[in-house]
Amino acid sequence: MRKWLDKAWAKAAAFVLTLVLGGLTVLGGIGIGILVSYNVFLDDGAYLRQTLYQEQCYDSLSMANDYLCTQLDSVGLLDKSYYFVNTDTADSDEYNPEAAKQLLSELPRLFADAFSRELSSCQLVVSDPDTGETYLANFDLTESDKLLYDTQELYVYHLSESTGLTSIQVAITATLLEKSGQAPSYSYLVCSWLLTHTGLTIFLTVLCGLLTLFCFGFSMASAGHWHGREDIHLTWLDKIPADVFALALLSAFFIGWDTFYSEWGRVLFCAALIPVMLLFLCVFAAQCKAGSVIRGSLTARVLRLLWRILRGVTLGLWRIVTGIPLVWKTALVGLGLALLEIGLYQMNYYGEYFLVLKLVELLAVLAIALNLRTLEKNGKQLSEGDLSTPVDTKRLFGAFRRYGQAMNRLQSGMESAVQEQMRAERMKTELITNVSHDIKTPLTSIVNYVDLLKKEIPGMVEFNPKGSKEERAISVTPYFEAGNIWFPDPREAPWVNDLIRDLLIFPRGTFKDTTDALVQGILYLMDKPASTGPPREMSTTHESYWRK
């Protein structure tokens, strides 16, 4: 079944079958309702049969009465004022005694021809209700006729004043026969079929109802599934907002209901709306699966637009209000209260609302004073170095709350800075302790290793530096300034440039220990007599790098 969900032909077939089977289910339900209303399941259809027979008889009585009225009126025997409203007497047939006499003599034959056995379903007898004398009869009953039902009605015909009579009363009796040449009405045929096939009607109605539910469920399940699409895909029809679709349906229904006044016209109009309603349900199911029913509705879009507009206006006003300095806010509030008092005074309501207004002003001033007192108290604690008590902003409002929050942020920052400084001092102390311990431990081994190097490597000279690195560097500065220190050519020794740069910025250079080692070597050589000197060609002519 799942492989058919994305088939277009399966969707179309389910849509059409839902409409057809749904219509049959509705018709079957109406038929079952008719059977229930006439108590067919209680009296085995006796009451329904009697009702059908009565309908046939009353139809025949009505036809016979209309026929007699037409014939009597054709010769001017009837008084039309009793039968028609606003009748023009100039257009009415005048009473003609000769024609009336001839009509009355031929009326039995005309009546029998109009309601013959082949054309009428009932035997019609027109008689005198008092004496029972028969005036007219369409045909005589035979022994083979099977009587089903008979009824009698009294009719009064108001005669024209020209006849000399006022009215005449007759009784028309209709006897329904089992077999008749006249075709019965559609209601009679339908009710007769329902009465004969009651069990089949119930079975077919239930079967069509189940098939309708199955096809409807398939239509709802297949909504949004299309061939070549793994996820839910919305077509242009599915993208119509559900509220717009529903509003169009309701508008069409009310417009059509007011347009079609006849009963059958409204029924046909509602039947025409059912396919559109089923299509709306399919669209609604697809939107539900895609999760766009509320998000894609026109109402939600309008509400979101209004919310953004309202939110933007509110935030703009809030920024304007919060951006106004407190002094100006106070001035504006005071001006508003003054204008309010002036307005109340002009409308003669100042005396009635004076106490209320002053009480509100007093409460507002007390609230502002309490807020200021809270800020003052916490500001004093902060100035005394108390960083553990934040400002309670729950009871503050407006600008006071923002100031309290700013003080809390300042207090938190200061507390964090103090804790960070204490942590740095603690780490510094621990580092010095650990380094001192690490240096003292291998000191003896280092001294012994130096003694061993002096014995094993020739040229190693022991030198005991005096003072700090800066003092030693200052003591050899005159030798550099006098040009007594010679450096190799940087093209032969690239490290010379870095060494000269460190000498110039000492002690901020990168290689401070290398510079100090050079200074110690110069001090050592200056304390010893010179055995050899620089080359003769460079001793007097080389320019000092220190002077550069």
Helix share of residues?
55-70%
Strand content: 5-15%
Please give the number of β-strands. 4
Largest sheet: 4 strands, antiparallel
What integer value in Å does the Rg equal? Answer: 60 Å
What does the overall shape look like?
elongated
Walk across the major sheet and give the strand order.
Answer: 2-1-4-3
**Count of helix runs:** 18
Q: Which stretches are low in confidence, meaning pLDDT under 50 for 5 or more residues running?
A: 531-548
Mean pLDDT: 79
Cα separation of the termini = 96 Å
SSE pattern, N- to C-terminal? HHHHEEEEHHHHHHHHHHHHHH
Question: How are the elements arranged and paired?
Answer:
Blueprint: H1 8-37, H2 40-43, H3 46-74, H4 97-114, E1 122-127, E2 134-137, E3 147-158, E4 167-177, H5 186-196, H6 198-222, H7 242-259, H8 263-290, H9 298-323, H10 326-346, H11 350-383, H12 398-440, H13 443-456, H14 469-475, H15 477-481, H16 495-505, H17 512-526, H18 536-539
Antiparallel strand pairs: 1-2, 1-4, 3-4
